[in-house]
Amino acid sequence: MSLVGNLEDLGLGEILQIVSLSRKSGVLTLESTGRVGKVVFLNGQVIRATTSASRINLGDLLVRNEMVSVEALKKALFIQRNSDKPQRLGSILSEKFNVPQEKIEEAAKEQIEKVVYSFFGWSEGSFNFELGEPSELASGHVNPLQLMLDSGLNPQWLAMEGSRIIDEKRHRGESLEDEVEEPILDLADLLGDEAAALFDEPAPVPAAAPATAVGDAPPAPREVQGPPVYLVDDDQLTAQVLARQLREHQLDVKVFTSAKDYLRALPQAVEAGENPLLLVDLVMPKVDGTGILGGVEIIKKVREDYPDLTLLLMTDHPTAEVEQKLAKFKLAAVLRKPKKGDLGVKAGQAELAALADEVFRHATGSDPAPTATGYHFGEELLKEVDDAELQAHPGKIQPTPGIHVLGGMLQELNNPSLGGGIILLVLRFASELMNRAVIFFVKGDEIVGLGQFGLDGLGDNADALVRQIKVPLREESIFTHVFADLTPRHTTFGDSKADRYIMEKLGKGRPTDVFLGPIISEGKVVAIIYGDNLPKQEPVGDTESFEIFLSQAGMAMERALQERRVKGSQAV
Q1: What is the pTM of this model?
Q2: What average pLDDT does this structure show over 23-41?
Q3: Residue 493: exposed, middle, or buried by beta-carbon count in 10 A (0-12, 13-18, 19+)?
Q4: Residue 154 CA, distance from chain mean position
Q5: Domain ranges of the chain
Q6: What's the first-to-final CA gap in the chain, in angstroms?
Q7: 225-364 falls under which CATH superfamily?
Q8: pLDDT mean over 63-74
């Protein structure tokens, strides 16, 4: 997978979401007005981020936060440089100098977040995502003074927070540009001139960018109110967004994303005398990883072992039947939470705020204080560049074909009212890249035509004729390898009986190149889009952006199917 384009066509938030959901490993490079930024992904999680606008490194960060002395850092670097097997600097500091590993991870995490958030202020530029080998990206063979995590950060969370920060800056009239930060440590002093040259990674910093003092002093810690809130939701993004909202109410929140970890932590909390308030999501896997009502399993277990703890249930599908069924467990309340797809719109933000307010009331017995102006997730992330600026960079990059429509299509795909329109979106996107396309639907043991565009040779009844096309799954055909590999492919027709039948039905002869893209839901091919460039004998070309969209379309179908199942389960 290689994805190239302009930030004006596809925003950083959308890029982060694409890489996250596809669980790819690789390096995203951003370039804007003389600045260069890099974000490294491992299996869809962010493990490293660097920018030419800031030279802060891990050693510098640890010294700033008084977690290690300069002398100890020198010794750790000496050990690292002279060891036979390279180690991470953080590992050496933890093992040899008693610096808590979790503190190192937390410091690195905060700085990586800060770097990524700064990229949302780059109002023009280009991006390039290149796949990388997970083993190489996860190895310690990188600049030992650079920031790198063992466990990555959720890109969807970073996208949400980056959008919020940019929106708030716009609302306050502040500059969106990141400030240059200089390290307080001299690498040559730490390592010697020769070693410092090896470790330092020079990158261009624009001459016009003003140097600033080291960052502002951290805000004074807030006084925590009420008992700790133990929150469990298998959707990591929703859990993190809700936890942030609760912490703004000065609540102490501990987040879990599995029923197993949640039930393991509760005994330790009770033994320590915490008596936490429990906030449990209804729809999540059970302890053994099966089913969809793991929240009910947690509630039953909690009431058996801890009958006096306050229990709050949250769900994005509240019904009277659910409340009636769970009444015997003496829940303090059943609260509505926003759907994941609504977190970025005003209605979802209002639901989130109402949920946080209710949790605060149950935790403290009082109303929360009024909060600052709400977030504006829905506004454009990046300002448009005027025509003069666009013309100043002619032909700077060759974007991936279809990249200009990918962002808008992904937004439409996340529309909860879309329903059966997913197939229409797929055909609309295909029309940007090929002359003809047909959607085939898997029905029982047959592949059946469903819809089309560009089949002008079939006359006014093209749709009806396409729906008459039926190919048995067991027969060898152009589709066979797609079902076996579950991956898109460019191919040509063979001489099998089924291939001759399909060509005859579609008309216009034998194309030189055929694109086949599966739509996969729950691990199975549920539909295939066929495309070619007839009547022209031309290859279809680069379909990378379209393949990304097809993977998201399959996930959208999966979400719709899961929602129908949940509604059916609640109705029962």
Answers
A1: 0.54
A2: 86
A3: middle
A4: 6
A5: 2-199, 225-364, 403-568
A6: 44
A7: Response regulator (3.40.50.2300)
A8: 78
